[in-house]
DNA sequence: AAGTCGGGGCG
DNA sequence: CGCCCAGACTT
């Protein structure tokens, strides 16, 4: 058997039963593909089930509020995916009368849908011959063909897309695409793959040249920056609390948090004055304060390390913008904040 | 072409 | 601790 037939055969035997593999409905395929971007199946699966249950059709998703969509997405990360998902749902429901785009070219017009996702939906839902290239495909192809072009270089992206397009089974593109991805995820794994039981080990260049652990090649890691966050947990006698939407672009856009003041170093209890509250709502108001955590809560993201303090501030009366403490959990919030809310238990 | 955007899991 | 994950978008 050749490369593509071996992969499809391996897939027919080893594929996992997953809910999005029991349908060709483009709405469900789209949902699964967005959720699974840069996300492992195990992490994304419960979110997929929750979205299908909460929003059975694209109209249900379109008619939801962005806040409700973000709340359901809470904890999954890369929140622009949720915002774009909602934007595209409204576009499909309202501009396209609910008729899902059915070609690679038209799918690309959806916000949050790039080359990979357009290819995945086009092939899986509509059987279009469009080759997917995700992290799994980069790994399988770079190893099997012994290609050391960096997968995240402009040249590498072109080269691997062309190679994948030349390999796809034009008779069964849906099966081929899912086969090579599943093969990469389960057999041709990043770390210590068992090449002894690999069905295509006889033709694998990386195995012959002992380069399995050296491929694929990826350029430069992202630089990690360190930040010091101070969250002001402001509570009043009526059990109201300040909780704000992050409106600026960047991390956690449109999610909610306690008023935040960044500092240049990790603050101790006696450094409270460094927060400079003179220009805030707390100016000329009597309050008591306490530092909740002496040791920073460290929240590590892929490109930022956040060293975080929570300051508990009690005042007589907060302004009208405050919300009730018991409604806190209704709002979408970063894991860092929702974890604190659980732990503090108000 | 390089940065940005989350959070979890693994060795 | 660094790397990876069914990547896309902005600058």
Q: What are its keywords?
A:
single chain, 346 residues, Endonuclease III, domain 1, 5-stranded mixed sheet, 39% helix, DNA-binding
Task: Tell me what the structure shows.
The protein is an alpha+beta fold and 346 residues long. The protein has 2 domains: 3-208, Endonuclease III, domain 1; 225-344, Alpha-Beta Complex (Nucleoside Triphosphate Pyrophosphohydrolase), CATH 3.90.79. The protein is 39% helix and 13% strand. The protein has 13 helices and 9 strands. It has helices at 3-14, 26-35, 41-54, 58-63, 66-73, 80-95, 104-107, 115-126, 135-144, 154-167, 173-186, 205-208, 335-344; strands at 225-236, 240-241, 244-245, 256-257, 260-263, 287-291, 297-300, 304-315, 323-324. Helix 2 (26-35) crosses helix 3 (41-54) and helix 9 (135-144) crosses helix 11 (173-186). The chain is elongated. The mean pLDDT is 96. It binds a DNA duplex (11 and 11 nucleotides) through helix 2, helix 3, helix 6, helix 8 and helix 9. InterPro entries: A/G_AdeGlyc_MutY, DNA_glycosylase, HhH-GPD_domain, HhH_base_excis_C, HhH_motif, MIG/MutY, MutY_C, NUDIX_hydrolase-like_dom_sf. Keywords: 4Fe-4S, DNA damage, DNA repair, Glycosidase, Hydrolase, Iron, Iron-sulfur, Metal-binding. Adenine glycosylase active on G-A mispairs. MutY also corrects error-prone DNA synthesis past GO lesions which are due to the oxidatively damaged form of guanine: 7,8-dihydro-8-oxoguanine (8-oxo-dGTP). It comes from Winogradskyella echinorum.
